[in-house]
Structure formats: C-alpha cells, structure tokens
Amino acid sequence: MSITSGPDGTTNQPTIYHIRIQGHLGRQWAGRFEELSITLEDDGTTLLTGPVVDQAALHGILKRIRDLGITLISINSTGASPNNSPEIGSRDQPAG
Q: Which residues contact 16 (CB under 8 A, 6 or more apart)?
C-alpha cells in the first residue's frame, strides 16, 4: 500500500472504515472483501473493517456490496490508519 504526500505536504494515510451490512456474510463471499476484517455480529449483521486508501477504493468496495445484492446499513470512518499496514487485527472466519 503506498502512502503519498498531498499538495500541502501532509501524508495521506488510509482512512479506517467500518461498513455494516445486513445478514452474515457467507464464506463463499469473504474473498471479495479480503482487504477488510470481517466480523459477524450477534445482531445478525456483518461488520467490514479496514483501511481504505482513497474514495475510489471505497467506491470499489461499495460496488462489490451492491453487485452481491447485499443491503448496506451504514458506513463510518474513524480517521487515518495508525500504521501503514494493509490489515488491522485478525480476520474472523465467517459462518455459513
């Protein structure tokens, strides 16, 4: 993952996003979101979490969600990634 400097000299780091979708994401679809951590929530939703380098990458993720016919519940950003690692934490193994 490359980190670039903006016109003002600041470093553009990936933003961490939390994307909540309806239902539990089955194993057969987990490969479509390999750059994100997948957490199956007790309320029946799935939380996709991870760094997204720019708006184009975010739109790519949202397009995959749309193309799979999954209902999007929410998208929240938590600011820049604390490190340059493309993965945050460990991935949970989805059931189903």
A: 49, 50, 51, 52, 77, 78, 79, 80, 81, 88
Residue 39's domain comprises: 26-80
Walk along the chain (96 residues) and give the pLDDT tens digit of each residue.
444 444 444 457 899 999 999 999 988 888 899 899 999 999 999 999 999 999 999 999 999 999 999 999 999 998 765 554 444 333 444 444
Q: Examine residue 3 and state whether it is found in any structural domain, yes or no.
A: no
Contact criterion met (CB below 8 Å) for 17 and 88: no
Q: Report if residue 58 sits inside a domain.
A: yes
